[in-house]
Write the structure tokens for this entry.
Amino acid sequence: MSLPILLLTLLLQATQSQLTPPGKSSVEGVVLRAGTDEPIEDAVVTLAKAAPDAEVSVTTDSQGRFALKNLDAATYRLVFESSGSVSQEYGQRASWGKGTPIHLAEGQSLKNIVVRLMPAGSVSGRILDDYKQPAAGVPVRLMRFSYDEQGQKTLRPSGSVRTDDRGEYRLYFVTPGRYYLNAGTAPSPRECRDFTLGPNEVNEVYANAYYPGVADLKFATVVEVQPAAEVRGVDLSLARTQLYKVRGRIIDGTTGQPPIYAELSLTGDYSSSCGFGY
């Protein structure tokens, strides 16, 4: 080997040692679109430790490739996200399941990770009032069953939107699965009404209903969303609802006089009433 080539080789080795400190680890791979193997550019790949804020993110290149380098030996979660695709963790087998932690040893180089992100779907339709006129500003929710921390099966919202002036709505970037569609408004707590009416909107109140127009969930029809599918024509007709006032007096049971201070609250079942704030 000639002296100039030898010097260049030593220089490159010295530079490489500065870029990749001894004992550091790395993770490399590619992100593809499920079903087509098309590379996904600008997908966000996040490597996170268990400690709060201990994470690093990179984006994929035009070939869907990513590289996370100069990592400490630790246990990580590897998360992949791209607009229009279902977010996924490394090792995750089901869209609503959990991933597999990555245990990086000192100096380990984990390569050739291949992740295929599932394209999301959409659900659209139209909401009419009891006069078959477009119902504007009506909350529409997609809901599905899931298990809470106590292992109880609970119906939870998975996305919400308001109808436009034509009574039309569209829920997009929906994770494929089985859902119930619920629409309507009802008197609800303040935290459920964190939206502002326009200057020319009237606050109409509609009865709640599940698709295809039933009040009881057990008679509702499941809306099946497939990957990349556009589920159209999920329409509902809703009846306007009358609002009521509750009035009365509070008396101290000991003195028979009104108390100096009292708290009063009116509670109800708002599990399907709130269209926002989730």
